Write the structure tokens for this entry.
Amino acid sequence: MRGGTVCAPHVNRARRRPAPRALLHGASDMEQGALLLMVTALLIGGTLAAASRAAVASYAAQPAPAPAAVRGAEATSPDMCAAATGPGGTTAPMRMDEGGLQMEMYPTTCTPPTWAEFDRVHGLLARAKAATDKYRDFTVAVKDGYARSSLAFVQGQGYHYLNPAYLDRGFDLLHPPFLVYDMVHGRLVLQGLMYYLPAETTPQQLAAIFPPSLASWHRHLNLCLRGGAVLPVYTAAGCAQQGGDFRASTGRMVHTWLWRAHSGIFTIDM
């Protein structure tokens, strides 16, 4: 049926292809072999193309995968994504526990980054790496004012070294407040940088630095520190009993693993 009109039977009748053997009549052995190969290839190609079209149609009919599920406002993974429901295409903050640490994070959006975002972030990180590559020599970092911070070692991340001069000056691409080292064969090896902003920094301000399609900022909550270690204590009273330093909240932070990114450049853990 075409446009509501029933076509005559002879119009819809498929044209009959010549049988392969009819094509071979009078051909040499070499020509027959070549023709057989060509016919076989055409038949197989047509079958595969039909199967491919069917597979694509079947895949296209399936619904798109939903963003990672969350339990209310609680994240299930530090590297999960979420729908961009916040102002300016940002995500809502989520709470989670990881490795004895309580944190609030802005997960990345589940939408892929644009080429413009890729290009801008690539330029930023290339400049940051060039400016801090000298700190692969740990003695240079110490000379420039970096010292082991109160939050010295974090499992899965490494040793954090802080330069207090850079902590309260806002975002400074070329002067990160923290350098993160890993101990490799008894030697401190630079792995990444950590940028740090006040806790009241808005999601829109964070997104203006690194787009939420790529980077996830977080802050730690109810932190009890003692001797450079994080204690599994989450109240001020309990922390005081352990002789620790209690902090209800840190500022907003993001890692950039520029020298060794096992999981991704902006992941929480290296």
About this structure: The chain has two domains: 9-61, 81-256. The chain has a mean pLDDT of 76.
